[in-house]
Each structure stands twice: as structure tokens, then as C-alpha cells.
Amino acid sequence: MNPIVKNTLAVLAGIVVGSIVNMSIVLLSGSIIPLPEGADNRTMESLKSTMHLFEAKHYLFPFLAHAIGTFVGAITTALLAFNHKKKLALLIGAFFLFGGIVSVCSLPSPVWFTIVDLVFAYIPMAYLALKLLCHKGKIQKKE
Prior knowledge:
Elements: H1 3-32, H2 44-50, H3 60-80, H4 85-106, H5 111-120, H6 123-135
Helix pairs in contact: 1-3, 1-4, 3-4, 3-6, 4-6
């Protein structure tokens, strides 16, 4: 298979797998930490209007969804890519970081969550995925 096509498919797979993991964690979160009384997350408008009811514990699963989704997406891309595995895995981190920026611009969230989410959930998790793969010998350290 052409390396460009294989790398493109690897990036698309990383985005899809990372997004599925992200959404699965978000959907699971409500059964572990219920939404506050009166909160509604069925539409973006209702979520915006009830975000003021959220406590710190309600931000745990969104952070985990962003971090773990990025981590799994980066691993998927690095394992499937033909070459430039590290660059493409970091591209996944940048893609999800862009999504995080859009999210914090769209939904009101506390400043502390915005900082923690944007600083720790995306690029560092893609980098951590690469370090894990290098340590396990799945990709070369000098690639």
C-alpha cells in the first residue's frame, strides 16, 4: 500500500478510535457521577444553561475522556502508520487539542478546568503514548 495512503488511513483510524473512546467515557460518566439536580445535557443549549450547577467532580470524566481518547487515538495512529509515526501521533494530539479549544470556547467551564484540560489532556497524552510505544519496542526511538 502507498505510504501516504497508509499514513492517511492511520490518522483517520486514530481520530475515529480516539473519538469512540472519548464518547464512550462521556456516556459512561453519567452512571458513575450523576448530573446535578436540574442539569440537562441532551442539547448544547440546555447544557450551557445548566453548567453553573456542575461541581468539580462533574469535570473528572470529561477530562478523562479527552485524555484517554487522545492517548488511544495516538497509539492507534502510531501503530498503523507506515512512517513518521511520532509526527502523526502528535498530529492526533493536536487534532484533539483543537477540539478541546472549540469545546471550551463553546461551553462555559471554570478557568481551572480549561487550563488543566488544554494543558494536560492532549499533547502530553499523545507524547505519553509515544513514550510507552518506544519503551515497549513498538516504534523506534529515533524515528
